[in-house]
Every structure is written in structure tokens, then in C-alpha cells.
Design brief:
115 residues; Arc Repressor Mutant, subunit A; 12% strand; HTH_ArsR_DNA-bd_dom; WH-like_DNA-bd_sf; ArsR/SmtB family transcription factor; WH_DNA-bd_sf
Length: 115
């Protein structure tokens, strides 16, 4: 098996690939929260939620601040900028391809059938 170093973009998409991690980010959009507050509504153990949080932290999407015994998390949307740019670049590519196909079909529609 080949091991490779994950890029920030890889880590972002890997973190966003899981619905639990997306739910955690959604919860943190409005305000910071303690880890226990985030874990409470989720149908899994605190240990499982912590593993999801570590993935989000590794991707830079979540920041942790320890205050006494409490761990507070906040969202950091900065890594999403690169992910959004990547999607935007490919959206433009596919839009150009779709436009070229539409032009090609339109041209052949007006030419009629070939004898």
C-alpha cells in the first residue's frame, strides 16, 4: 500500500465527507460550544464524537480552546475557501463543456439529417 501525505484540500474534503462531521460544523456555525454540548444530541459515544472532532481539527475546520476542564470548539471556515475554489474551477470547466455540447447539437439540428 502506498502512503501519501494528505494536502489541506484532501483533509477538508475528507472531513466534510461524513454527515456527523458536517452536523458538528453546522452546530458551530452560530457559536462556540463545549465538546459535551456537541456530543449530547448525537447518537454515539463521547469517544466517537471526539474522533470526529479530531478529523475536523486536523483539517483546520475546528479550533479548540481549553478553559479549565472544559474544551470549547469553534468553527474556522478558512479551509473551505480552497475547497470552494476547487469546485468553482470545475464548475466553470463543466459549464463550458455543456455550452459547447449545446452549440454542437444546435448546429446539427439546424443542418438536418445527413444524406
Amino acid at each position: 500500500m502506498v502512503e501519501r501525505v494528505s494536502t489541506p484540500l484532501d483533509l477538508t474534503y475528507m472531513a466534510l465527507a461524513d454527515p456527523t462531521r458536517r452536523a458538528i460544523l453546522q452546530r458551530l456555525r452560530s457559536a462556540e460550544a463545549r465538546v459535551t454540548e456537541i456530543a449530547e444530541p448525537l447518537p454515539m459515544s463521547l469517544a466517537a464524537v471526539s474522533k470526529h472532532i479530531v478529523v475536523l481539527e486536523r483539517a483546520g475546520l475546528v479550533r479548540r480552546e481549553v478553559r479549565g476542564r472544559d474544551h470549547y470548539l469553534s468553527a474556522d471556515p478558512q479551509p473551505l475557501t480552497e475547497a470552494e475554489k476547487w469546485i468553482s474551477d470545475y464548475t466553470g470547466f463543466w459549464e463550458r463543456r455543456a455550452d459547447a455540447l449545446a452549440d454542437h447539437l444546435e448546429q446539427h439540428l439546424h443542418e438536418g439529417p445527413t444524406p
